[in-house]
Input
Amino acid sequence: MSELRYDDKVVVVTGAGAGLGKAYALFYGSRGAKVVVNDLGGSFNGEGADTRAAATVVEEIKKAGGIAVADYNSVEFGDKIIETAVNAFGTVHVLINNAGILRDVSLKNMTDKDWDLVYTVHLLGAYKTCRAAWPYFRKQKFGRIINTSSSSGLYGSFGQANYSAAKLGLVGLAETLAKEGAKYNITANAIAPTAASRLTETVMPPEVLKRLKPEFVVPLVAYLTHESCKETWGIYEVGAGYCGKIRWERSAGATLKADDSLTPSAVQAKWAEITDFSNPQYPNGPNDFLKLLENAKHAPSNKQGEKIDFTGKVAIVTGSGNGLGRAYARLLAKLGAKVVVNDIANPDNTVNEIKAAGGIAVGDRNNVEDGDAVVKTAIDNFGTVHIVINNAGILRDKSFQNMTDAQWDAVYRVHLHGTYKVTKAAWPYMLKQKYGRIVNTTSTSGIYGNFGQANYSAAKLGILGFTKTIALEGKKYNILANTVAPNAGTAMTATIMPPEMVQAFKPEYVAPTSVLLCSDKCPCTGDLFEVGSGWTGATRYQSSGGHYFDKLFTPEDVQANWKKIASFDDGRTSNPKFSTETNAHKLFAFENQAQKKKAGSKNASLSGPDSNSAVPGGGLLVAPKVDPAKFKPAAVKVFPKEYTYNFRDLIIYNLGIGARAVDTKWVFEHHKDFEVLPTFVVIPPFGASVNIQELVPNFDMRLLLHGEQYCEIINWPLPPSATLVTNPSLVETVDKGKAGVVVTAGETRDKNTGKVYFKTTSTTFIKGAGGWGGQRNFSDRGAATAANTPPKRSPDYVASQKTKESQAAIYRLSGDYNPLHIDPAFAAVGKFPQPILHGLASFGISGKLLYEKFGMFKNIKVRFSNVVYPGETLQVEAWKEGNKVIFQTRIVERNLLAITGGAIELHNFGSNHIHIPFPKEVTGLGSEGKKVDPKDFKPGPVKGKEVVYDYSFRDLILYNLGIGAKKTDLDLVYEGNKNFTVIPTFAVIPPFLATVNYSEIVPNFSLPMVLHGEQYAEIVNWPLPKNGSLVSTPRLIETVDKGKAAVIVVGSETKDKKSGKVYFRNQSSMFCRGAGGWGGQKEFSNRGNATAANKPPSRAPDFVSSMKVDEDQTAIYRLSGDLNPLHIDPEFARRGGLKEPILHGLSSFGMSGLMLYRKYGMFKDIKVRFSNMVIPGETLRVEAWQEGNKVIFQTRIIERNVFAITGGAIELGTPGSGSNKL
Output
C-alpha cells in the first residue's frame, strides 16, 4: 500500500504547541504538508500567552526538512489564523480544531467566566476557524475538517458542564458541516480521543500509560483528512491503539393515540416500549412524523399508568408564551404545579389561561440569559423551584457560507447559554432541598445536523452534553435531568413548516413526555428522547467493535483496517452511556492482545468488555464478567515490598512536598534538627499490594479510585538509612451494590531489627464491582474511618503554599513514576490540560503545613476530592478540637477542595530529629589540614581514591533538574520520552569523589577556603546507558604554588565497571586559599584544550541565552553528589567568608552547558574558568561565538553584570554512537 502523502496541502492545526496538536503538526510536516502551527501559548485554564510553544514546533518541522509557519492568535480570532495560512501558502485544505482549555468545577461553583472561556476556546473558536476556511474549501472543491470532541462531551463528566456542552456542540457543528459540504468534497468528522482517567491516575502502570501517547491518535485523523478518504458525518473514539466509530441508535418507540387520553400517565404506561431497542433505527435525521401522526390517530385509546401529580411543586418553563412552552405550562398547572411562565415577549396570555382554569401561575419577562432574574421570580412568588423546563429558542437559519457572527451568537445565547444560566440559578435550591427535575430541549437538527443550521445544531447538541453532565452531578441529590428533541408546530417552526404541518404537529402531542420527566415518577436521568405526533422514542449511541492495533500504527494501517473500525454488522457493537463503558476506554486491551497471541489467536479486534491484562503482582486489570450473585472471593494473596533508603531519599521527599533551600533542617542532612516530614510514611509501602482483582466481582482497574488514605505512626524518628519491609493485608471488602470497596493495610518495619515504624490504610473504590452479597457497611476503625466534618466556625488556622511548576517532576523521584504527572501528551489526548500533581504530594504538602503549626502527629487521614495542577496554591484550613486537628485543603485558584475529611491526632514522640554526624570528608577533598608554616611544609605522597558510581535514570533526571531543567524539558525530566538524555556536563558527576588527598599535598588546607577554579571535561563515548555502574580513577596532574594560595589539578578517567568502556575524562583545578607559599611549581603546564584561554572575539556574540537560577537549585543539585555544606548551610558559608550559601560552580557550569546544548547540540569537550560566585535567584546569561567547530563562551550574572564563567569553550561533535538519546 502506497504512503498517504499530503504534498502541496495546507494544514492548519490549532493548539499545536504541545501534546496532540504538536503530534499532528509534526506528522503532517513529515508527509509533505505545509503546516500552520497555531498556539496562543496560554496556560491550561486559558490564561496568559507565550509564543515559544508554536515557534518551537515550527523549528522542529523545519529541521526535519518540512515547511511550517507559526500563528499566535487565539482561536476566537479564527479568521486571523486562516489569514496566516492564506498569506503564507495561498489557501487551506485541512483544518484540525484541536485547541482546548479546562475550567473544571461543579455546576454549583461554576462562574460565568469558567463557562465563557471554555465555550470561547472550544466551540466559538471552531466555528470561527471553520467559517473563515469555508470559502476556500468551497472554491477549490476540497476541504477536510476534524473537530475534537471528548468522552466528557459524549457521555458527560462530573465537574465539566461547560466542557461537556462545548465538546458535544462540536459534534453538532461537524454534522451540519458534513451535510452542507458534501457537494463540495468537504468532509467533516468529530473525534473523541481517549486518555487516562482521573480515577486511575494514581494506579496506572507505565506500560499501560505509554499507550496513551498522541501518536496513537494521529493515524486515524491523518486518514480521515487524506484526499482519498471520503468518510464524513462520523464520530470516532480513538486512543491506546483502539479506533472505533459511533453512530446514533433510535428505538422503535411507542405510539400513543393523539387525543385527550395522551397524558404523562399514559406515557409512563408505555415506558418499557419507549426504551425497547430490540428493533432499532440508525438515523441521520428526524423520524417520519407524518406517518407517525397517522398511526397515532388510528391507535386505540391510551391506557393510563400511575397518577402523576405536581401538587406543591414549583415549575419554571422558559419560552412559554406560545407553542410548546405554553403546552408545558398549562399541563403542569393542570396537574397541580405552581408555574412561572417565562417569555420575553408576552407571558400574560398563558398565565391568564392557567388562572382561568383554576391554576396558579405568574409571568416573567426576563431574557433567559439573565437566568438569575428568571429564577428570582419563582423564589419571590413561591419560595423555591423544583422543576425547570428550558424551552426558549430562536432560529437564525443561514447556509454556513453566508452565516454571520451575529447569527451564530444570537442562537448560542438563547439556546445553550440561556439553558446554562437558568439551570445554574435554580441549582442551589435543588441541591438544598435534595430534589429537582430538569428537562432541556435539543433538536433533531442538533442530533443529526441540518443544512443551514450550523449555529442551531451546535447549540442544540451542546445542550445534550450539558445535560449529561448535570445528570451525573445531580443524581446523588435526587436531581434528575433529561433531554428531549420535540417535533411540534410552534411559533419558531412556523417560519419553516407549511401551515397544515404546524397544525398537525400539535405541541399537546409532545408535552406529556416532557412533563412525565418532570415528575416524581421520572424513570431515568441523563437520557435523550425524540418526541412528536403522539410518538416517543429513545435515542442513544451505538459503538462499533472497532479495531485494536497492538503497536504504533500508521494512516495506511487505518485505511487497511477500515471495515473493522467502522463496521456495525459483526456482532461486536455496544451501547455506552458512560465514558467508562466505551470501547476506547479499554486502555488495557493491549495486554489482552498479548494473551491472545500467546494462545495463537490472530484476531486483533476487541471482542467486548472482557479484555484482560496483567497487573503487578499477578492477576488481571480487567477481570472476566461474572454474575455478581455467583461470585466467590478468592483467598487473599499478599505482595510485600522492600524499600531501601538513605538521607538523600528523605531530602528528595521533603523537596517533593515543598521544602525550600532555606528550610535547612529538611534539606541538609547534617543540620542538628534534620528530619523527614512525617507524611513520608506513604513512600516505603508504595507498591505493596494484595490481589484486589480477585476479591470483588467484575474488577476493572479503569474504574478504580484511590479514595482515602490513613497513616498511623508507631515509632519515630526513622533511622538515617535502612531497609524497610511493608507487609500488606486485607482489612475488609464492602459491597455497595453498584460498587465494591477494598480496604487494604500495610505494616512497615525495619528489615533487620523488626521494629514497626508505621501502618498505612488505603481505601479503594471500584465502580461496577459490587452486588455479590458481601458486607454492606464499613466497620468502625476509629480515626481511619472518622468523617472529620469541619466545625461550623471559621478555621482556627489557615496556611497556604504555592506549588512549584516543577513540583511533580521532583515528587515523582520518590517512586511514583506515573507519566500522568510529567508527560503532557497524556493530558493533551484527553481531559488533562497538563500533567497533574500526585495526590500524595498534595497530601504531603497539607501534612507539612499542619506540622509547621501543630507539631508532630501520630496519625493522619484524608479523602482525595480534586486533582491539583503544579503551580496552583494549596490552602489548608484547620480546626483544633482538643488533641485532634480537623482540616481540609483548598485549591485557591479554582476554589475547589483537593482534600476533604482530613484530620491529624497530635502526639509528641520526643525528638523527631535524625542525627547524622558531620563526617570528616563530605566532598572528597580531604579533611582539614594541620596548621603549619608553609616554608616548613613537605608534600606527602599522593593517595588517590577510586570511586564506583551506581546510577539509574532517576539520578540523570535529578542532575538535569539540578542544572535548571524545567518540567517542559521532557527529554531531560521524563525517562519515557523517546529523546530522553542527560546533558553531557553530567560527566563531572560520577568522578566527583574520585580525588586525591588534598590536605597532605598543600599546606594549611581548609575546606571552607576551597574554590573551584577551572573544569575541563572530555566526552569519549556517548550516550550513557540509562542505568549502570561507573568506576572513576583519579590522578594528580600538578600542584601550583601561587604564594597566598595553592592550585591543585586533579584528573580522572571514568569507565563502565563491567565492560571497561571509557566514557569521559575530567580535569579539575581547585583554588585553595591560604594554602600556598611552600615553594612549589609556579606556572601551569600546557594541556591543550584543558588550558586554552578561549578569549572571545571582538564582535557581538552569535548567540545569547539566559536562565534564572531557581532559589532552591542548590538543594537539588547537591543531591547529585556535591554535598559541600557551603551550598546549603548558612553557618558553614559564613565560615568561608560568604554572606549566604552559593550555587555550586558545577551547577553554573551545567546550566551553561544546557543552554549551549539546546543551541548547538552535542559537544565532545567543555572547558570553563569559574570567575564569580552565583547566588541562587540570580540570572545567568550565556554569550557565545562560534569559530568553526569550536564555540567560545562566557556566562554573565545579569543582576550584578559580572562574569560567573570566563574562558569557556565547547568543541562540537557527538562521540561514540552519534546519538544523544539514552
